[in-house]
Amino acid sequence: MANDLTGKRVAFLGAGKMGGIILQALLKNGLLSAESTCATVAHEERAKALAAKLKVKVGTNNVEAAKGADIIVIGVKPQVVEDVVREIAEHITPQQVIVSVAASVPTAMIEKNLPPNVPVVRAMPNTPCLMAAGMTAVCKGKHASAEDVALTCHMFDVVGRTVVVDEKHMDAVTALSASGPAYIYIILESLAEAGVKVGLPRDIATLLAAQTTLGAAKVVLETGDHPALLKDAVTTPAGCTIDAIMELEEGKLRVTLIKAWSKRLSEPRNSRLAESHCAYSTSKEVAGGEGFTS
Question: For all residues of the chain together, what is the average pLDDT?
């Protein structure tokens, strides 16, 4: 399968929060045409709303959507992935590609419920995809080819950056980049609160904190320099920055973040699935409008 979506028929099974974000971005950027794209949601009312919003065919029948699709994106809640895969299995062939964005669901679980040799690719995006600033990790299943992986990366490149990893690293990816925005929001909120404490208006303090976070991240990405070197460049001898860093070190910020990541990674798989359920059920305001909740 060529690394090109032109002419490809794509079905999004579960155009909820993340599936809806990806679908909307692909349509907006012209990588998919409305005529060759369809989607499903759980309820007829949401189907009508999403169809009106995106001008694509949206229904509630997963089997009908999957039939004849070249690429099937599974965006349902992790707890129901196996049921959905079993539902469509008899209509799936090795000429189709299954792309799953369900957190903590291994490719082997999907493959075992499908006919032999069906390619499965697993992707783990994060919520900043909503602003085309996401981070998505991609891994291949047993039968997926390098072309299948490249095509999947091409899809997710429209909402940010992509990286290809071995599947054994996907839980670590989930703990770092998928859960990571929540950690960053806490840090950002704390910086803004510090500004408020010394008299800055809250909106200005939040803007300063957010733009500083964005700028620092951009410097890391574009220079390729180690964060420690960049930190040292800001930290002048006997200056106020080093005093603040000492407070952060005494407060064990670094260790706390590492321990939080390790705790997230060490959770039992069932707990991760439950948390994924909560993430996929975020309010429609955050998800970007009507029809983007599961």
Answer: 89
The identity of residue 257, as a single letter, is L
What per-residue confidence (pLDDT) applies to 277? 46
- CATH number for the domain that contains residue 47: 3.40.50.720
- Residue pair 130/288 in contact (Cβ under 8 Å)? The answer is yes
Per-position b or e across 179-200, b if 16+ CB within 10 A of its CB: bbbebeeeebeebbeebeeeeb
Q: What percent of the chain has pLDDT over 70?
A: 89
Say if residue 41 is in the same domain as residue 84.
yes
Residue 289 inside a domain? The answer is no
Q: Identify whether 138 is part of a domain.
A: yes
* Whether residue 201 sits in one domain with residue 60: no
Alpha carbon 22 to its chain centroid, in Å, reads 9
Is residue 9 over pLDDT 90? yes
Place of tokens 């309820």: 43
Task: For residues 45 and 157, give the distance between their C-alpha atoms in angstroms, rounded to a whole number.
Answer: 31
Q: Which domain, by its residues, includes 33? A: 10-174
Interval 77-123: pLDDT, tens: 999 999 999 999 999 999 999 999 998 899 999 999 999 999 999 99
Three-class secondary structure of residue 2 per DSSP: coil
What is the separation of C-alpha 111 from the centre of its chain, rounded to a whole number of angstroms? 21
Cα distance between residue 184 and residue 189, in whole Å: 8
> Helical H runs in 4-159?
17-28, 44-54, 62-66, 81-88, 107-112, 146-156
Read off the DSSP letter of residue 226.
Answer: -
Please tell me the pTM assigned to this model. Answer: 0.85
Structure tokens at 289: 């409008």
The residue out of 174, 205, 226 marking a domain boundary is: 174
Q: Could you tell me if residue 273 is inside a domain?
A: no
